[in-house]
Amino acid sequence: MATIRMRTTNRRLTEEQEVKRFLDEQGVLYEHWDMKKLPKHLCDEFILSDEKKEEILNVFDAEIKSLANRRGYKEWDIVALSDATPNLDELLKKFEQVHVHTEDEVRAITAGNGIFTIKGDSGYFDVELSAGDVISVPVNIPHFFTLLENRQVVAVRLFIDASGWVAHHYDDPDFKSE
Asked: What is 3-168's CATH topology?
């Protein structure tokens, strides 16, 4: 279940309905997938073969296709990050820069945790995600994604056009790194 922390006040939203309502007000899609569907051997697996990635995509095929049909996504894949990922620290430095995209940034977390920092109506807020959480940050909304302390995540990513999904740096004097 996602939680939200307002960076300016440190206020937290922890109830599912208030999280969903807040994200709806910001134009951010939030859904939750049933993680009981995922076989146990994939629940805490962060080094994935192509076969295991395909297995995850097959398990959530109906959810992926439903989201894709509603939002116009044409392609999807799996990303898995952990301390075993080569150059993880360099990747995280790149991720942890505020940027925008010319299409939505979509993540459906299937294992581990991650955090989106997003610029909203009243400043930046953090959305802490765990297995089952699905989020879509709209086009041109300043944000970044990174890992939590456990530094492990597996997520389904959905795209309209993966080749055009490029981060564009967003220099924002309002953003304060923590």
From this structure: Jelly Rolls (2.60.120)
